[in-house]
Design goal:
single chain, alpha+beta, 29-stranded mixed sheet, five-stranded mixed sheet, 14 helices, 36 strands, 19% helix, elongated
């Protein structure tokens, strides 16, 4: 290649003067670009942004531009003003903003394509205003919307405030790795604050925020959050998340007490032992109403398994919860929170510190009926339609088989219609209505028992071996009070229980009749069976006191008739039972039996005054002739058959 000859080049320019002009222009532009101070454009840019958005905008440092096919723009310390109602003057700022613009798409197609954008220590302040409108709503939407491909965030901070809902969240945001090709780098998020007044923390991993702009592309997240004892783990995809349109997440929830969900999510539940659930979370929007679905979930609540599907709809007068729940194995005391009690504590029982303390108070209390008040605001805060089926119930002291409960809550009125338990091979069905629209709660309970087998109801296996018969009953009560104890303590109504023909071991009857000789004989030699003709108890209930109208237990061996009261208000027993054996027996104590004490500590003993008198007579006769002393305790069997019938045990 020949060396450059200036004279030949000048001669060529003289022959083509337009080339000389072009060369001069390019040289001038090169010199201008090299020496140009781009800060001259700061003022016009700031005024243009302010005019289009209605917010202040300032570039606090240098403005620099590198021209090229991809023109790179760098701005130091830019800041964007906040809404006029916010106490924070700046909505967004960063130490440095650097981004590129593709020149040819802009010139040829009026398309703003930004391949890369980098933010150093960005700060973004999002806030909902007094009218519920966010500070991110401003200005008019431009004709040309930029398209971003990659975003890199270095030491970012995001704060969100919703004062009306007592929410203040601040998180750190950092890009984790440089994206490859057209792939935007993902981000790590970590922070916390207050959500609806409750302290919480969050950490997670998500795609680049730029991917939020495409509503057709799934946005992947994996986040952990914790508020007090409640933990959540969400992983999966969001579709069009900026408008919160569609969700398809796996959501695991775990905590010490499901009642803690009320201040967090507005879902009212009774207190529960620790729980852990995992299911699929989706969202459906129909007009002004939004429904969150939690489907195909499974896990445990206390010592019970729980699975099913649930949904909660917002946008109406109150949130509406619908659920279909199933437990294969239900630990009965895990239901204690529904009646204001605490489940058992100790051993392998699942509980939390609050419920364990409540259980300790219950054990120390002389009362048995739960007196923890219902939270009226929870009963009024939401509506619900829930069905819960338990295939098997673990209740060591109760012969419970299964459960089918239908719960309806609407406008502060709670109905269990029905609450159905399989008991001792039979069925106890309850219809309960609690009106919490005013205080105290007004309650109506109608309970029917049918076909209960006698044997499983007896407390000891030895006594239950030969017990045959079916029991039935009807209870109808009306009461007022904000706890179970107060409802029952003020109740009026009727209660009846009875059984028809059956069979029972004679040992049990000899216990009831305090026939010492017969009881000892059967303990040593074994029991025998005797027929039951009938048994029934019929009580009138007034102001929490049950008064016996008819009380009898009749067998071919013994008849027991009774009288007295049971106080649901004071939890005391005052019953007198008169056992009258029908056979001849030595040492029988023919005196009334007193059932007294409290529900928690009942007392079953003979009328000691009557026993003492007859014992004194026997002792006097014994001093004369020992065999004659037995005559004072000889029972000739004067008892008569009780009248059997009625509808109690059909």
């Amino acid at each position: 290649m020949p060396p450059f000859d200036p004279r030949r080049a000048w001669a060529g320019l003289r022959r083509h003067p337009w080339l000389a002009v072009l060369a001069s222009l390019l040289a001038a532009i090169a010199v201008l670009v090299a020496l140009w101070d781009w800060n001259w454009f700061r003022g016009p840019i700031e005024r243009q942004v302010e005019a289009r958005t209605g917010r202040s905008f300032e570039i606090g440092g240098n403005l620099d531009v590198d021209l090229g096919r991809i023109t790179t723009i760098r701005a130091d310390a830019p800041s964007f003003g906040n809404a006029h109602w916010s106490k924070a003057p700046i909505m967004a700022s960063t130490d440095r903003l650097e981004f590129g613009i593709a020149v040819w798409p802009l010139l040829l197609h009026r398309e703003v394509l930004i391949p890369d954008i980098r933010l150093a220590k960005p700060r973004l302040h999002l806030e909902k205003g007094p009218t519920g409108v966010g500070n991110w709503v401003f200005g008019e939407r431009g004709e040309m919307q930029p398209r971003f491909r990659r975003l890199w965030i270095d030491d970012g901070r995001l704060r969100f405030i919703d004062a009306a809902n007592k929410t203040d969240i601040e998180v750190a945001v950092d890009s984790t790795a440089q994206g490859k090709g057209q792939v935007a780098p993902p981000i790590d998020v970590e922070g916390g604050g207050r959500w609806h007044g409750n302290r919480f923390s969050v950490r997670g991993h998500a795609q680049s925020p730029l991917d939020l702009r495409d509503p057709r592309s799934p946005y992947h997240i994996d986040a952990h959050a914790q508020a007090g004892g409640t933990k959540a783990h969400a992983r999966g995809t969001l579709l069009d998340p900026l408008r919160l349109r569609d969700f398809d997440l796996k959501l695991a929830l775990a905590g010490q007490d499901m009642a803690d969900l009320y201040p967090l999510l507005g879902i009212a539940t009774p207190p529960t032992p620790p729980y852990a659930l995992d299911g699929r979370l989706t969202r459906e929007i129909q007009g002004a109403r939004t429904t969150w679905h939690y489907d195909s979930f499974g896990g445990t609540v206390g010592d019970s398994d729980l699975s099913g599907s649930a949904s909660i709809t917002t946008g109406g007068p109150r949130p509406y919860l619908r659920a279909q729940l199933v437990s294969r194995q239900l630990d009965f005391d895990d239901l204690a929170g529904f009646v204001g009690a605490a489940p058992r504590a100790g051993g392998s029982e699942s509980t939390n510190p609050e419920l364990a303390a409540q259980a300790a108070r219950q054990r120390a209390s002389p009362k048995l009926l739960p007196d923890t008040p219902y939270a009226l605001e929870k009963l009024r805060a939401m509506d619900a339609a829930v069905r819960w089926k338990a295939q098997r119930i673990d209740a060591p002291k109760l012969p419970l088989d299964d459960m089918d409960a239908h719960l309806l809550l609407e406008s502060g009125v709670l109905r269990l219609q029905p609450l159905d338990f399989g008991v001792a091979g039979g069925d106890i069905r309850a219809d309960i209505r609690m009106d919490a629209r005013q205080s105290p709660i007004r309650t109506r309970a109608d309970i029917a028992a049918r076909g209960l087998n006698l044997g499983p109801l007896l407390p000891e296996a030895k006594l239950a071996e030969d017990a045959i018969g079916k029991l039935g009953g009807q209870v109808s009560l009306r009461g007022s009070g904000n706890s179970i104890a107060r409802m029952l303590g003020s109740s009026d109504g009727d209660a009846a229980l009875g059984m028809g023909r059956g069979q029972i071991g004679n040992l049990l009857m000899e216990y009831a009749g305090l026939d010492i000789a017969e009881a000892l004989k059967f303990l040593v030699q074994g029991d025998r069976k005797i027929p039951i003709r009938c048994a029934f108890g019929d009580f009138a209930v007034e102001d929490g006191v049950m008064t016996a109208r008819a009380l009898a237990f009749d067998t071919t061996d013994t008849i027991i008739v009774g009288e007295g009261t049971i106080s649901l208000k004071d939890e005391t027993l005052q019953l007198k039972l008169r056992p009258r054996p029908k056979d001849r027996s030595l040492l029988v104590l023919r005196s009334p039996l007193i059932v007294g004490g409290t529900f928690k500590d009942p007392d079953f003993h003979p009328d000691y005054a009557r026993v003492g008198l007859r014992g004194a007579i026997a002792l006097a006769l014994g001093s004369i002739a020992p065999p004659a002393a037995l005559l004072a305790t000889l029972e000739l069997g004067p008892g008569e058959d009780a009248a059997c019938g009625g509808n109690y045990a059909k």
